[in-house]
Amino acid sequence: MSRGVKTHIISFFAVLLLPIFAAGANQPANGGGDIIIKATLSSPTAIVNETVTYTVTVEGENIPTETKPKVSGLFTDGISLQAVDSSRSIISGSSMTVVINGKVIKDDKDAREIVEYNYHLIAQKTGTYKIGPAVIRLDNVDYSSPQVSLRVNSMPNADVLEEAPSEVFIHAKTNGTKLWAGQIFTVAYHFYFRNDIDVERLTGETLPELDGFIRYDFEQPTGRPRVSRITLKDGGVYKRAYIGRLIVFPTRTGILTLDPYRQGYVQASQMPGHGIFQQYRRVERTAVSQSISIEVSPLPTEGRPDKFSGAIGDFKVEFSLDRDNVRTGESIAMTVKVTGTGNLEGAADPVVQLPRSIESYPPEKQDDVSAIESNLAWERTYKFILVPDKSGETSIGPVYFHYFDPEKGEYSTSTANAIKVNVMPGKQTRSSVENSGPTIKKPLTDIRYIKPDLQSLKNGRGFSIDKTWYIAAHFASLIFVGLAVLVRKRRDRMETDGAYARKLKSRDRASKKLEAARKAIGKSSDDFHRELYNSISGYISDMLNLPEAGTAPREFAVHLEQAGAADGIINEVVDLLETCRAARYLPGNASKNEKELHKKATKIIKTLRSAIKETPVK
Amino acid sequence: MIPRLSIIIILALSTLCLPARAGSGTESGASLYNRANSLYAEGKYSEAVELYEEAISVGATDPRLEYNIANAYLKRDPMDIGRAILHYERARLHAPRDPDLLYNLEYANMLIKNKPPVAEKTYLQLGWEKSMSKITVKEAAISFSVIYFILILFITLAVISRSDGTTGVLKKAIVTMSILLVLTMPVLAGKVRGLSRQKAVVMESNTPLRSGPGAGNPELFTLSEGMIVYRRACRDDWCQASSPGGMAGWIPRNSIELVTPAD
Question: Would you call A459 an interface residue with chain B, using a CB distance cutoff of 8 Å?
Fold first, then answer.
């Protein structure tokens, strides 16, 4: 394994571990910046040709100027987009504009701001339009607003009146005076004032007291009422403005009276005077509509289905399943939709025919209602969860919805045909259910049983990856690799560099010889002096990489001098070596005090290590 | 003689009873758990819930306890599906392969009303999520660590080895362990990331998810009790939350509860 590879191993593990532990050390995500997106309409209803503003508001930090929301539903037939504008305002934090080298740089750090995008729309056709959601993409995250509904109605037609009851009045026009109990009907109110009357503005209105009726909605045009000029049949010229529509249904039978509608207005009249001195007097008055008599008939008993829902209008039922292949114990999502016009308020659910082997849960119900010309348009959605408990082919449905059709004056039934479903044995089939035929267990009794009694329970939060010791242990283990690399490097050098190897081993070898000399004290003078001599000469030879044999004491002195050793230690070495040689080769010169000599040699070896500053180059 | 023997026996019995009496002030989690199990068996689910909750309050975090309390929440009248799913999810953190737990959790999920649409996923994503759900963080961390330390050992031995034969074998082992480590790493990273996403359960039925933090903001859609959401930033009493289907908005802080409770 090359040295480069070894170095890279450490980097590899550092890179490998850091992201994991960094992720572990992270606190739970805050989800980036808080972006709040809203979408609103200036009015949820409009009359044809009326202008409505759809506003998307984005609140957050550092919202890029170039990022604009994508809004679906703006380019549908029936709605025309006239103009788009936007505005930006800081609501908290700081915003600073600086000029650097002639460039204008905006610093919006920490600034929380609101950006508003206004889409000015013109409603062109009647109907209900879904606008949105508005989606803005910031930092690769989509933020979306809720979808909004715009209901566009035509202006209710007004009758051409025979005559005017007064110079200012309200005319109430209903779409029928003979109704069935519970049938939706609408009353449109038009404000009339004679051509020469100056009505400056309308003030508050008072809706009729409803006795025997339930109000579903009161719809008003947005902005100033649009005024048109008409001529009545009696020749009177009047101005007329549509001011609202009441949507109600009768709850009692018999002759019911809908009280008058009252509308306040401010009338301006000229005071005597001319030119710039002309003055006007303003008087607040109230215009009143006629009351309306309605004949309400009870629903016929003849032909009434047992499971009549109570709905009055014209409806259609349909349903769908999210799958037609299922295992026992698994769920099927069934969606039943009742759509049509009329009154579904308080109506019973459709009749869903299910085999006994399928368990059904109470459905979730959702209404989407919008007012159309003279009625209400409904889309009621039921979501059932069905759980088959028996395998085999079965049918879900049919679904019936019984309602009363006020146009035909009779009961009708809308039917959605059955759908076949193939039920396969489930993984968790309960044999008791399989064998017991139609007997269905309630699902809640079917959950598996609790765990048995225990001697002890686990306590505490247990293992956590962000524990310091866990992370530290992984990094600490890299030390072993580092040590191994150092060991390997030392060994490789020892094998290739003889001088280095000798130097490393010099002390051990010298120590061994000193020990041998110590053992020879008092026993063999020759052995003692030989070992002592060899320990010093060997040590110097190893340290300076000199030939071990054949080097005279004076030669050692020269080498030691070259290696930077001080004169004192050099003299001591030469002196000791000469003493040993004399003791061995000149009889009678044996040391008197061998112990002292041994001590001296030991001291010299200790001193030499630090005395030799550099190894001479060979 | 007999009265003396009786006194000795009574004293001995009293000594035996001492630890029991001393412990009665703070009943152990296991004891509460076992008592709750008995109540459950008798059909007293509400009482069982109380004892299981008490066991949790004394520090027990055993998945079997979480499983049993979830069962009791489902069984009691009225059923508390939010709490049931919360405790099943907590049990799943420690026992993700328990077949009883998975079965009951599936049942509980089936009872959630008005489930939101779930974003379509590829087979690869589904497979990955399924595999990830089968292991705990602890298991992922231990697997990673074991492979990692073996790899370190092999590298150390390879560095100091003198024999070419041994070095060759070690090199192969290093490559194998490195591959295993690289495979284990995303699993651990995924689990760690999963922990950092604050999984929470909706505790109230018909909780509106709004476009901003405040009741005055438009409602985007309604969350049903028991649904899983991921909590993000919180501001005052409102938290940003996103559903697994990708829908995001703001909900009241007290309408959700974290699966991994905050410290």
Answer: yes
